[in-house]
């Protein structure tokens, strides 16, 4: 006997649905949850990762105080299928984010600190950032000991440079040392 073929499709979530679940207390506030292409991901944070994010935050706050808002592991709305939590981001400081998460047009720079999440950050997340027009993404590659710089997206890809002392496109006179 032959059975009909069928496909199992997992539910794709929207940002509104994810935020409603969070508001209802269905998501663990201790977990770092992201929505990418409608799929929910729990992103681990190891000790080395956390230490680098802490140090990076100190550097960014010192360097960009009064020029940009430094956002640390908090949501950025890309579109209805994508709500990401980059490790750090530089945002337009003139805007008010009390009633909504930042949108791509208010993001100057996204920084991902990557060790166990390197493939995920370079793959799904980098493509999503490019697609919505975020001009610059830095991936601090803890495994290799350098920072990957992706600038001026077109389509799903960025041009790439490597370096450890870097200045964001939005602030070319403000270089920071990351590793």
TrEMBL record:
Q: Which Pfam families match?
A: Uma2
InterPro entries, per this entry?
Answer: Nuclease_put_TT1808, Restrct_endonuc-II-like, Uma2
Q: Where is the Putative restriction endonuclease domain?
A: 16-172
Q: Which SUPFAM superfamilies match?
A: Restriction endonuclease-like
Q: Which Gene3D superfamilies has this protein been placed in?
A: tt1808, chain A
Q: What is this protein called?
A: Putative restriction endonuclease domain-containing protein
């Amino acid at each position: 006997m032959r059975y009909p073929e069928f496909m199992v499709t997992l539910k794709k979530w929207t940002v509104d649905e994810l935020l409603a679940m969070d508001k209802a207390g269905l998501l663990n506030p201790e977990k770092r949850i992201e929505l990418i292409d409608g799929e929910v991901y729990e992103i681990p944070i190891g000790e080395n990762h956390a230490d680098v994010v802490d140090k990076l935050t100190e550097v960014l706050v010192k360097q960009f105080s009064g020029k940009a808002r430094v956002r640390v592991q908090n949501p950025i709305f890309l579109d209805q299928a994508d709500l990401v939590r980059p490790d750090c981001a530089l945002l337009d400081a003139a805007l008010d984010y009390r009633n909504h998460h930042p949108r791509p047009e208010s993001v100057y720079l996204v920084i991902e600190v990557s060790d166990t999440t390197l493939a995920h950050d370079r793959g799904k997340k980098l493509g999503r950032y490019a697609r919505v027009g975020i001009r610059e993404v830095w991936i601090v590659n803890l495994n290799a000991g350098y920072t990957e710089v992706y600038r001026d997206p077109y389509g799903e890809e960025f041009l790439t440079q490597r370096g450890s002392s870097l200045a964001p496109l939005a602030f070319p006179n403000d270089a920071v040392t990351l590793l």
